[in-house]
Amino acid sequence: xxxxxxxxxxxxxxxxxxxxxxxxxxxxxxxxxxxxxxxxxxxxxxxxxxxxxxxxxxxxxxxxxxxxxxxxxxxxxxxxxxxxxxxxxxxxxxxxxxxxxxxxxxxxxxxxxxxxxxxxxxxxxxxxxxxxxxxxxxxxxxxxxxxxxxxxxxxxxxxxxxxxxxxxxxxxxxxxxxxxxxxxxxxxxxxxxxxxxxxxxxxxxxxxxxxxxxxxxxxxxxxxxxxxxxxxxxxxxxxxxxxxxxxxxxxxxxxxxxxxxxxxxxxxxxxxxxxxxxxxxxxxxxxxxxxxxxxxxxxxxxxxxxxxxxxxxxxxxxxxxxxxxxxxxxxxxxxxxxxxxxxxxxxxxxxxxxxxxxxxxxxxxxxxxxxxxxxxxxxxxxxxxxxxxxxxxxxxxxxxxxxxxxxxxxxxxxx
Length: 415
Ligand SMILES: [Zn+2]
Fold this sequence. Notes:
Elements: E1 6-8, E2 21-23, E3 28-30, E4 37-39, H1 43-50, H2 55-65, E5 69-72, E6 77-81, H3 86-100, E7 111-118, E8 121-128, E9 134-136, H4 143-149, H5 193-206, H6 212-223, H7 226-243, H8 264-275, H9 283-292, H10 299-309, H11 314-320, H12 322-328, H13 332-349, H14 357-366, H15 372-379, H16 389-414
Antiparallel strand pairs: 1-2, 3-4, 4-6, 5-6, 7-8, 8-9
This protein binds zinc ion (ZN).
């Protein structure tokens, strides 16, 4: 149910759950004769949704139409000389988005424009937050000169902090804040090698899955039939125990209100549960789905993922999805959420797996998503954060052989 005047940033994506949205560009003709001009009253809002200065699309229109433009940032007034109808400018905006916003590799709009200088040479690239690729823009386009003269002010984010509460899921309206979420600085973060691994995997899968966004859209539209919706609600009700995000008291986090069944986390979890067995749904699709919900960087997503994705074959599955785990488990907090998910999986959903806890932890340790200090700390402190106290004890007790092994391995090293 798209609100009036809100459209997908990629208008070729016909998916009402597509999370990158912007206001529909509006126009107003003013003046007459030689002085006739087209005002874009909501250019500032449109540009904000695209995370570009409003001057860029304005100037772009000028370049494409051979018209003078004027931009007044202070009063948020953006004008193209001449009379141009809205549909033409919207088409041109699509072209602008394609050329200067969307990642050329994965078509995600979450990119920054970065100017790379080497000697006298300057190149403008789109630095993709989603897949990590840097893809260049058409340096022959006239807008390039303007961008080089008026470089984007990329917000410098501190690594810690500032990343809280920026995403409110797909709650409605424009993602005034969502698409350009902080998080890692350019390619930085603690991902390191794991990024490369997923990038490789994405490239490998991309060849076969160039239409995956479309596929995702189809999946969603199929899911919105009344029967499907009913089935989902039903399935959901039976799983509330499994997927509910926290026992009373919640996670004690800043993300509290997301625990309800319509939170992006729960929606993501349901999607994973429903689609994980489908052919073609692999790590890349799962990651992209998390991105659509804007939760791919959240530790809570890891908690949900573990519960939704893994089954009694968890040890094998850890290896199957190691690139995905490496991509998503990016901090100590994420590791703790990972362990929380495992606690719920073996403690609540698959109690028969309790004896396998050491194997599971070993598998996670071996793919480098679990650090010794974190798992040791976890194993020696009973917590009611994710499960009840008894279960928590049981799981930790079961983990002892692994912790012992870690300790011994340490001793060996120091000798
Ligand atoms: Zn990308």
